[in-house]
Amino acid sequence: MPPKKKPHFQKAKKNRIFQDVVDQIQEAILDRRLTPGDMLPPERQLRETFNVSRGTLREALRVLEQKGLIEIRVGAAGGSIVRQAGMEQLMETFALLIRSGSLSVMDVGQFRTGVEGKTAALAAQRASDREVRALETMLKQARQMNARGDTGWEKFLDVDQEIHKMLAKISKNSLYILVSEMVHDNIRQYYDKFLENTPGRMAENLKDLEDMIAAVRTHQPNEAERVAEEHVHKFIVHMEEKEALLAVPKPKAADEP
For 72, phi and psi rounded to 5 degrees? Predict the structure, then answer.
């Protein structure tokens, strides 16, 4: 491997000092002149190089930390260290969007329909015997939870989510894997609010999971995609129905003003 080029920072442009500092360090990280684990030059050296004040430099470093590009450590051995790019920031943002109500049931449902259909299709094409056995083990757990009735509902939802994430792993598509983790680690809030275990619902869901895994086992991508899309669509309908009921104002009692 050829030696990496060291970043050559320049004085920040006077008309956009703060943003220029952020941009220069970010570009050095993105084009791998700075790699995970590298320490940025000391603060005094950076201030002299960029020709900026302490406040401007520290604000720029805070922005880079918020982006997940560096970690600022304090103490005698402290400093700014380049981080490995990860999904933490995106996961946190997605979780906040769900908790704040910024993403509707329909938004999430439509997104899931397309993504999970394609994920299941790829899984059906690429699944190994070992991976199919892992799905079958999860399916067995789902059947056990279904047999418990109401007391198995919460655990059933857990297994359902794990099956979807496993299908993404089997797809061998890094982006689908990341998206699946992001969605299924945060979507439970919608389930808890809008999805009830009415008679037959767990059995209906179980049948979808059985059909989906059967299509993966027999390597039928079109069938796997169809079942996955219909499975998500059913959940959208159920949750929208409950959402509509929750939105209807309760009638006032006769003695209320």
Answer: -95, 120
Q: What is the dihedral of CA 138, 142, 144, 149, to 10 degrees?
A: 170
Q: Report how far apart, in Å, the C-alpha atoms of 122 and of each of 126, 168, 228 are.
A: 6, 8, 12
What is the model's pTM?
A: 0.70
Q: Does 64 share its domain with 108?
A: no
Q: Do 132 and 222 touch, CB atoms closer than 8 A?
A: no
In the chain, % of residues over pLDDT 70: 90
Burial of 145 (0-12, 13-18, 19+ CB in 10 A): buried
Give the pLDDT score at 128.
Answer: 97
End-to-end Cα distance, the chain: 79
Entry field: residues in the chain: 257
Q: Are residues 53 and 101 in the same domain?
A: no
Distance CA 197, CA 179 (A): 26
Share of the chain above pLDDT 90, in %: 52
- How many other C-beta atoms are found inside a 10 Å radius of the C-beta of residue 248? 7
User: Is residue 214's pLDDT more than 80?
Assistant: yes
Cβ atoms within 10 Å of 185's Cβ, excluding its own: 13
pLDDT at 253: 52
Q: Are residues 169 and 42 in the same domain?
A: no
What's 224's domain CATH number? 1.20.120.530
pLDDT at residue 14 in the model: 61
For the chain, the domain total comes to 2
